[in-house]
Sequence to fold (430 residues):
Amino acid sequence: MKIGIFGSGVVGNTLGTKFTELGHEVKMGSRTASNDKAAAWVGSAGSKASQGTFADAAAFGEILFNCTSGAVSLPALEAAGAKNLAGKILVDVSNPLDFSKGMPPSLTVCNTDSTGEQIQRAFPNVKVVKALNTLTSALMVNPGALAGEHDLFICGNDDGAKGRVTEILREWLGWKNIVDVGDITAARGTEGLMLLWIRLYGKLQTPHFNWHITR
Amino acid sequence: MKIGIFGSGVVGNTLGTKFTELGHEVKMGSRTASNDKAAAWVGSAGSKASQGTFADAAAFGEILFNCTSGAVSLPALEAAGAKNLAGKILVDVSNPLDFSKGMPPSLTVCNTDSTGEQIQRAFPNVKVVKALNTLTSALMVNPGALAGEHDLFICGNDDGAKGRVTEILREWLGWKNIVDVGDITAARGTEGLMLLWIRLYGKLQTPHFNWHITR
Fold:
Protein backbone atom coordinates (compact mmCIF):
# COMPACT_ATOMS: atom_id res chain seq x y z
CA MET A 1 0.00 0.00 0.00
CA LYS A 2 1.14 3.56 -0.63
CA ILE A 3 1.39 5.63 2.53
CA GLY A 4 2.02 9.35 2.94
CA ILE A 5 3.53 10.56 6.18
CA PHE A 6 3.64 14.23 7.14
CA GLY A 7 6.55 15.11 9.39
CA SER A 8 10.13 13.92 9.63
CA GLY A 9 10.45 13.77 13.42
CA VAL A 10 10.72 10.66 15.55
CA VAL A 11 7.03 9.75 15.18
CA GLY A 12 7.02 9.90 11.38
CA ASN A 13 10.35 8.15 11.30
CA THR A 14 9.20 5.31 13.56
CA LEU A 15 5.91 4.72 11.77
CA GLY A 16 7.51 5.08 8.33
CA THR A 17 10.20 2.54 9.15
CA LYS A 18 7.66 0.05 10.45
CA PHE A 19 5.49 0.43 7.35
CA THR A 20 8.42 -0.07 4.98
CA GLU A 21 9.47 -3.14 6.96
CA LEU A 22 5.99 -4.49 6.32
CA GLY A 23 6.55 -3.98 2.58
CA HIS A 24 4.57 -0.79 2.08
CA GLU A 25 5.76 2.18 0.06
CA VAL A 26 6.12 5.28 2.21
CA LYS A 27 6.71 8.87 1.17
CA MET A 28 7.72 11.22 3.95
CA GLY A 29 6.57 14.78 3.37
CA SER A 30 8.23 17.90 4.72
CA ARG A 31 8.15 21.62 4.04
CA THR A 32 10.89 21.16 1.46
CA ALA A 33 11.43 18.24 -0.90
CA SER A 34 15.03 17.89 0.24
CA ASN A 35 14.57 18.00 4.02
CA ASP A 36 17.72 16.62 5.69
CA LYS A 37 15.95 14.52 8.32
CA ALA A 38 13.70 12.96 5.71
CA ALA A 39 16.73 12.28 3.51
CA ALA A 40 18.48 10.54 6.41
CA TRP A 41 15.38 8.42 6.96
CA VAL A 42 15.15 7.50 3.28
CA GLY A 43 18.82 6.53 3.39
CA SER A 44 18.21 4.15 6.27
CA ALA A 45 14.78 2.76 5.45
CA GLY A 46 15.53 1.13 2.11
CA SER A 47 14.00 1.06 -1.34
CA LYS A 48 10.38 1.40 -0.21
CA ALA A 49 11.08 4.82 1.31
CA SER A 50 10.98 8.15 -0.48
CA GLN A 51 10.61 11.80 0.40
CA GLY A 52 9.02 14.94 -0.97
CA THR A 53 7.01 17.97 -0.05
CA PHE A 54 3.86 17.74 2.04
CA ALA A 55 1.94 17.94 -1.26
CA ASP A 56 4.03 15.10 -2.74
CA ALA A 57 3.33 12.86 0.25
CA ALA A 58 -0.39 13.72 0.18
CA ALA A 59 -0.69 12.94 -3.52
CA PHE A 60 1.29 9.71 -3.10
CA GLY A 61 -0.51 8.16 -0.16
CA GLU A 62 -3.64 6.04 -0.31
CA ILE A 63 -3.71 6.61 3.44
CA LEU A 64 -2.05 9.49 5.26
CA PHE A 65 -0.50 9.93 8.71
CA ASN A 66 -0.13 13.37 10.26
CA CYS A 67 3.01 13.15 12.38
CA THR A 68 3.73 16.86 12.52
CA SER A 69 3.52 18.73 15.80
CA GLY A 70 -0.07 19.76 16.46
CA ALA A 71 0.90 23.42 16.67
CA VAL A 72 2.01 23.36 13.01
CA SER A 73 -0.32 20.70 11.62
CA LEU A 74 -2.74 23.08 9.93
CA PRO A 75 -0.09 24.93 7.90
CA ALA A 76 1.48 21.59 6.97
CA LEU A 77 -1.85 20.25 5.75
CA GLU A 78 -2.58 23.47 3.89
CA ALA A 79 0.75 23.01 2.14
CA ALA A 80 -0.28 19.42 1.40
CA GLY A 81 -3.30 20.82 -0.37
CA ALA A 82 -7.01 20.11 0.01
CA LYS A 83 -7.13 18.49 -3.45
CA ASN A 84 -4.39 16.00 -2.58
CA LEU A 85 -6.05 15.15 0.74
CA ALA A 86 -9.66 14.95 -0.44
CA GLY A 87 -11.52 11.76 0.32
CA LYS A 88 -8.56 10.09 2.02
CA ILE A 89 -8.18 8.75 5.52
CA LEU A 90 -5.85 10.93 7.57
CA VAL A 91 -4.65 9.32 10.79
CA ASP A 92 -3.92 12.28 13.03
CA VAL A 93 -1.14 11.36 15.46
CA SER A 94 -0.45 14.95 16.49
CA ASN A 95 -0.71 16.64 19.88
CA PRO A 96 -1.02 20.42 20.31
CA LEU A 97 1.97 20.73 22.65
CA ASP A 98 3.03 24.27 23.43
CA PHE A 99 6.59 24.56 24.70
CA SER A 100 6.65 28.36 24.36
CA LYS A 101 5.82 28.91 28.04
CA GLY A 102 8.51 26.53 29.31
CA MET A 103 8.30 23.09 30.84
CA PRO A 104 6.10 21.23 31.30
CA PRO A 105 4.37 22.13 28.03
CA SER A 106 0.74 23.16 27.94
CA LEU A 107 -1.57 22.65 24.96
CA THR A 108 -2.27 25.26 22.26
CA VAL A 109 -5.88 24.09 22.16
CA CYS A 110 -7.95 21.87 24.44
CA ASN A 111 -11.13 21.46 26.51
CA THR A 112 -13.61 22.91 23.98
CA ASP A 113 -11.60 22.18 20.82
CA SER A 114 -8.75 19.97 19.62
CA THR A 115 -6.24 19.67 16.82
CA GLY A 116 -8.26 16.77 15.43
CA GLU A 117 -11.34 18.96 15.17
CA GLN A 118 -9.38 21.88 13.72
CA ILE A 119 -8.11 19.61 10.96
CA GLN A 120 -11.54 18.08 10.33
CA ARG A 121 -13.12 21.55 10.10
CA ALA A 122 -10.42 22.84 7.75
CA PHE A 123 -10.68 19.77 5.49
CA PRO A 124 -14.26 18.52 5.65
CA ASN A 125 -13.68 16.02 2.84
CA VAL A 126 -10.86 14.30 4.68
CA LYS A 127 -11.69 11.34 6.91
CA VAL A 128 -9.79 12.33 10.04
CA VAL A 129 -9.18 9.50 12.50
CA LYS A 130 -7.39 10.52 15.68
CA ALA A 131 -5.19 7.68 16.86
CA LEU A 132 -1.75 6.78 18.24
CA ASN A 133 -1.33 10.22 19.86
CA THR A 134 -1.54 8.94 23.44
CA LEU A 135 1.75 7.07 23.78
CA THR A 136 5.40 7.15 22.83
CA SER A 137 6.33 6.23 19.27
CA ALA A 138 8.33 3.09 20.10
CA LEU A 139 5.18 1.59 21.62
CA MET A 140 2.97 2.68 18.71
CA VAL A 141 4.68 0.11 16.51
CA ASN A 142 5.43 -2.44 19.22
CA PRO A 143 2.58 -2.66 21.72
CA GLY A 144 3.85 -6.06 22.85
CA ALA A 145 6.83 -4.34 24.46
CA LEU A 146 4.62 -3.75 27.50
CA ALA A 147 3.72 -6.97 29.28
CA GLY A 148 0.31 -6.00 30.65
CA GLU A 149 -2.90 -5.05 28.90
CA HIS A 150 -2.98 -1.53 27.50
CA ASP A 151 -5.24 0.42 25.20
CA LEU A 152 -5.29 2.64 22.15
CA PHE A 153 -8.00 5.29 21.86
CA ILE A 154 -9.37 6.26 18.47
CA CYS A 155 -12.05 8.71 17.43
CA GLY A 156 -13.43 10.28 14.28
CA ASN A 157 -16.63 11.09 12.45
CA ASP A 158 -16.45 8.38 9.76
CA ASP A 159 -17.20 4.87 11.00
CA GLY A 160 -15.83 3.25 7.85
CA ALA A 161 -12.55 5.10 8.23
CA LYS A 162 -12.32 4.15 11.89
CA GLY A 163 -12.96 0.53 10.93
CA ARG A 164 -10.18 0.59 8.32
CA VAL A 165 -7.74 2.26 10.73
CA THR A 166 -8.65 -0.30 13.38
CA GLU A 167 -7.73 -3.09 10.94
CA ILE A 168 -4.42 -1.43 10.18
CA LEU A 169 -3.62 -0.95 13.86
CA ARG A 170 -4.43 -4.59 14.57
CA GLU A 171 -2.89 -6.25 11.54
CA TRP A 172 0.14 -4.07 10.88
CA LEU A 173 1.06 -2.88 14.36
CA GLY A 174 -0.31 -5.65 16.57
CA TRP A 175 -2.77 -3.65 18.66
CA LYS A 176 -5.28 -5.77 20.59
CA ASN A 177 -7.24 -3.26 22.66
CA ILE A 178 -8.60 -0.41 20.55
CA VAL A 179 -11.23 1.74 22.23
CA ASP A 180 -13.45 3.85 19.94
CA VAL A 181 -14.31 6.89 22.05
CA GLY A 182 -16.62 8.54 19.55
CA ASP A 183 -16.62 11.33 17.02
CA ILE A 184 -13.72 13.68 16.42
CA THR A 185 -14.73 15.93 19.32
CA ALA A 186 -13.49 13.14 21.59
CA ALA A 187 -9.99 14.24 20.52
CA ARG A 188 -10.40 16.84 23.29
CA GLY A 189 -10.15 13.88 25.62
CA THR A 190 -7.34 11.94 23.96
CA GLU A 191 -5.18 15.02 23.33
CA GLY A 192 -5.97 16.13 26.89
CA LEU A 193 -4.28 12.97 28.18
CA MET A 194 -1.01 14.70 27.34
CA LEU A 195 -1.49 16.95 30.37
CA LEU A 196 -1.05 13.93 32.62
CA TRP A 197 1.18 11.91 30.28
CA ILE A 198 3.87 14.58 30.59
CA ARG A 199 3.73 14.44 34.39
CA LEU A 200 3.89 10.65 34.38
CA TYR A 201 6.88 10.78 32.02
CA GLY A 202 8.63 13.07 34.51
CA LYS A 203 7.76 10.91 37.52
CA LEU A 204 8.37 7.49 35.97
CA GLN A 205 11.52 8.70 34.21
CA THR A 206 10.57 6.74 31.10
CA PRO A 207 8.09 7.20 28.24
CA HIS A 208 7.56 3.44 28.08
CA PHE A 209 4.11 3.26 29.64
CA ASN A 210 0.59 3.40 28.34
CA TRP A 211 -3.02 3.81 29.44
CA HIS A 212 -5.31 0.93 30.24
CA ILE A 213 -8.97 1.21 31.11
CA THR A 214 -9.69 -1.39 33.77
CA ARG A 215 -13.36 -2.42 33.87
CA MET B 1 -10.69 10.58 63.68
CA LYS B 2 -12.79 13.68 63.05
CA ILE B 3 -13.43 14.31 59.36
CA GLY B 4 -15.04 17.30 57.69
CA ILE B 5 -16.65 16.80 54.31
CA PHE B 6 -17.71 19.71 52.10
CA GLY B 7 -20.63 18.87 49.82
CA SER B 8 -23.73 16.72 50.23
CA GLY B 9 -23.81 15.13 46.77
CA VAL B 10 -23.08 11.51 45.93
CA VAL B 11 -19.32 11.88 46.40
CA GLY B 12 -19.55 13.38 49.88
CA ASN B 13 -22.27 10.91 50.77
CA THR B 14 -20.25 7.89 49.63
CA LEU B 15 -17.03 8.94 51.34
CA GLY B 16 -18.85 10.05 54.47
CA THR B 17 -20.69 6.75 54.77
CA LYS B 18 -17.48 4.77 54.34
CA PHE B 19 -15.67 6.82 56.97
CA THR B 20 -18.48 6.41 59.53
CA GLU B 21 -18.52 2.66 58.83
CA LEU B 22 -14.84 2.67 59.74
CA GLY B 23 -15.72 4.31 63.05
CA HIS B 24 -14.71 7.88 62.28
CA GLU B 25 -16.78 10.92 63.16
CA VAL B 26 -17.89 12.80 60.06
CA LYS B 27 -19.50 16.22 59.76
CA MET B 28 -20.98 17.02 56.36
CA GLY B 29 -20.87 20.73 55.55
CA SER B 30 -23.26 22.58 53.27
CA ARG B 31 -24.24 26.17 52.57
CA THR B 32 -26.88 25.92 55.29
CA ALA B 33 -26.72 24.01 58.57
CA SER B 34 -30.04 22.29 57.83
CA ASN B 35 -29.41 21.15 54.22
CA ASP B 36 -31.97 18.45 53.34
CA LYS B 37 -29.55 16.12 51.55
CA ALA B 38 -27.09 16.30 54.43
CA ALA B 39 -29.94 15.64 56.88
CA ALA B 40 -30.98 12.56 54.90
CA TRP B 41 -27.39 11.33 54.97
CA VAL B 42 -27.10 11.92 58.74
CA GLY B 43 -30.34 9.98 59.17
CA SER B 44 -28.95 6.98 57.30
CA ALA B 45 -25.32 7.02 58.41
CA GLY B 46 -25.76 6.55 62.15
CA SER B 47 -24.47 8.15 65.29
CA LYS B 48 -21.03 9.04 63.94
CA ALA B 49 -22.58 11.34 61.31
CA SER B 50 -23.48 14.99 61.77
CA GLN B 51 -24.09 18.02 59.60
CA GLY B 52 -23.49 21.76 59.68
CA THR B 53 -22.35 24.69 57.63
CA PHE B 54 -19.15 24.60 55.59
CA ALA B 55 -17.56 26.49 58.49
CA ASP B 56 -18.86 23.94 61.02
CA ALA B 57 -17.40 21.06 59.01
CA ALA B 58 -14.08 22.86 58.56
CA ALA B 59 -13.77 23.59 62.26
CA PHE B 60 -14.75 20.01 63.15
CA GLY B 61 -12.44 18.08 60.86
CA GLU B 62 -8.86 17.09 61.62
CA ILE B 63 -8.75 16.26 57.91
CA LEU B 64 -11.04 17.72 55.26
CA PHE B 65 -12.48 16.43 51.97
CA ASN B 66 -13.69 18.85 49.30
CA CYS B 67 -16.53 17.01 47.58
CA THR B 68 -18.25 20.07 46.13
CA SER B 69 -18.39 20.62 42.39
CA GLY B 70 -15.20 22.29 41.21
CA ALA B 71 -17.11 25.20 39.76
CA VAL B 72 -18.36 26.17 43.23
CA SER B 73 -15.47 24.93 45.37
CA LEU B 74 -13.89 28.34 45.95
CA PRO B 75 -17.05 29.99 47.33
CA ALA B 76 -17.68 26.90 49.47
CA LEU B 77 -14.18 27.08 50.92
CA GLU B 78 -14.47 30.83 51.45
CA ALA B 79 -17.62 30.11 53.43
CA ALA B 80 -15.68 27.47 55.36
CA GLY B 81 -13.27 30.19 56.36
CA ALA B 82 -9.49 30.44 56.07
CA LYS B 83 -9.11 30.30 59.85
CA ASN B 84 -11.01 26.99 60.10
CA LEU B 85 -9.00 25.51 57.22
CA ALA B 86 -5.55 26.75 58.20
CA GLY B 87 -2.82 24.13 58.53
CA LYS B 88 -5.13 21.22 57.72
CA ILE B 89 -4.94 18.66 54.96
CA LEU B 90 -7.68 19.22 52.38
CA VAL B 91 -8.21 16.30 50.03
CA ASP B 92 -9.61 17.92 46.91
CA VAL B 93 -11.90 15.46 45.13
CA SER B 94 -13.49 18.09 42.89
CA ASN B 95 -13.53 18.44 39.12
CA PRO B 96 -14.26 21.74 37.36
CA LEU B 97 -17.08 20.35 35.22
CA ASP B 98 -19.04 22.94 33.25
CA PHE B 99 -22.46 21.75 32.14
CA SER B 100 -23.59 25.24 31.10
CA LYS B 101 -22.75 24.65 27.44
CA GLY B 102 -24.61 21.33 27.23
CA MET B 103 -23.39 17.76 27.06
CA PRO B 104 -20.74 16.53 27.19
CA PRO B 105 -19.49 18.99 29.81
CA SER B 106 -16.30 20.95 29.34
CA LEU B 107 -14.09 22.21 32.17
CA THR B 108 -14.29 25.69 33.70
CA VAL B 109 -10.50 25.68 34.02
CA CYS B 110 -7.79 23.46 32.60
CA ASN B 111 -4.51 23.22 30.68
CA THR B 112 -2.67 26.11 32.35
CA ASP B 113 -4.55 26.02 35.66
CA SER B 114 -6.74 23.71 37.73
CA THR B 115 -9.22 23.78 40.58
CA GLY B 116 -6.57 22.25 42.81
CA GLU B 117 -4.22 25.14 42.10
CA GLN B 118 -6.98 27.72 42.51
CA ILE B 119 -7.72 26.34 45.97
CA GLN B 120 -4.03 26.17 46.93
CA ARG B 121 -3.51 29.78 45.80
CA ALA B 122 -6.58 31.02 47.67
CA PHE B 123 -5.58 29.18 50.87
CA PRO B 124 -1.79 29.01 50.98
CA ASN B 125 -1.81 27.63 54.55
CA VAL B 126 -3.94 24.64 53.59
CA LYS B 127 -2.21 21.42 52.55
CA VAL B 128 -4.14 20.66 49.38
CA VAL B 129 -3.83 17.08 48.12
CA LYS B 130 -5.65 16.36 44.89
CA ALA B 131 -6.93 12.79 44.95
CA LEU B 132 -9.91 10.54 44.17
CA ASN B 133 -11.16 12.91 41.43
CA THR B 134 -10.43 10.55 38.54
CA LEU B 135 -13.04 7.83 39.07
CA THR B 136 -16.63 7.25 40.12
CA SER B 137 -17.46 7.46 43.82
CA ALA B 138 -18.48 3.80 44.29
CA LEU B 139 -14.96 2.79 43.25
CA MET B 140 -13.29 5.41 45.45
CA VAL B 141 -14.33 3.46 48.52
CA ASN B 142 -14.20 -0.01 46.96
CA PRO B 143 -11.28 -0.31 44.56
CA GLY B 144 -11.51 -4.11 44.81
CA ALA B 145 -14.76 -3.96 42.83
CA LEU B 146 -12.63 -3.93 39.67
CA ALA B 147 -10.79 -7.20 39.14
CA GLY B 148 -7.71 -5.89 37.33
CA GLU B 149 -4.98 -3.53 38.45
CA HIS B 150 -5.94 0.14 38.47
CA ASP B 151 -4.44 3.32 39.78
CA LEU B 152 -5.15 6.42 41.81
CA PHE B 153 -3.29 9.63 41.01
CA ILE B 154 -2.43 12.11 43.74
CA CYS B 155 -0.59 15.40 43.67
CA GLY B 156 0.13 18.31 45.97
CA ASN B 157 2.88 20.57 47.22
CA ASP B 158 3.32 19.08 50.71
CA ASP B 159 5.07 15.71 50.78
CA GLY B 160 4.04 15.03 54.36
CA ALA B 161 0.39 15.64 53.53
CA LYS B 162 0.65 13.39 50.47
CA GLY B 163 2.18 10.70 52.63
CA ARG B 164 -0.64 10.93 55.20
CA VAL B 165 -3.31 10.87 52.47
CA THR B 166 -1.58 7.88 50.87
CA GLU B 167 -1.81 6.04 54.20
CA ILE B 168 -5.51 6.88 54.48
CA LEU B 169 -6.21 5.76 50.93
CA ARG B 170 -4.39 2.48 51.54
CA GLU B 171 -5.56 1.67 55.05
CA TRP B 172 -9.10 3.03 55.04
CA LEU B 173 -10.13 2.57 51.42
CA GLY B 174 -7.95 -0.32 50.28
CA TRP B 175 -6.04 1.37 47.48
CA LYS B 176 -2.94 -0.51 46.33
CA ASN B 177 -1.64 1.52 43.38
CA ILE B 178 -1.23 5.19 44.24
CA VAL B 179 0.80 7.23 41.77
CA ASP B 180 2.21 10.54 43.01
CA VAL B 181 2.32 12.74 39.90
CA GLY B 182 3.96 15.73 41.52
CA ASP B 183 3.05 19.13 42.86
CA ILE B 184 -0.42 20.65 42.73
CA THR B 185 0.09 21.89 39.16
CA ALA B 186 -0.22 18.24 38.11
CA ALA B 187 -3.93 18.64 38.90
CA ARG B 188 -4.11 20.06 35.36
CA GLY B 189 -3.41 16.52 34.26
CA THR B 190 -5.64 14.62 36.66
CA GLU B 191 -8.60 16.99 36.26
CA GLY B 192 -7.97 16.92 32.51
CA LEU B 193 -8.65 13.16 32.54
CA MET B 194 -12.32 14.10 32.87
CA LEU B 195 -12.31 15.15 29.21
CA LEU B 196 -11.79 11.51 28.22
CA TRP B 197 -13.51 9.94 31.24
CA ILE B 198 -16.80 11.48 30.13
CA ARG B 199 -16.43 10.01 26.63
CA LEU B 200 -15.54 6.60 28.03
CA TYR B 201 -18.57 6.74 30.32
CA GLY B 202 -20.75 7.40 27.28
CA LYS B 203 -19.17 4.64 25.22
CA LEU B 204 -18.88 1.98 27.93
CA GLN B 205 -22.33 2.83 29.31
CA THR B 206 -21.04 2.48 32.85
CA PRO B 207 -18.95 4.60 35.22
CA HIS B 208 -17.39 1.45 36.69
CA PHE B 209 -13.97 1.68 35.12
CA ASN B 210 -10.68 3.25 36.09
CA TRP B 211 -7.28 4.19 34.74
CA HIS B 212 -4.24 1.98 34.91
CA ILE B 213 -0.75 2.93 33.82
CA THR B 214 0.78 -0.16 32.24
CA ARG B 215 4.59 -0.09 32.34
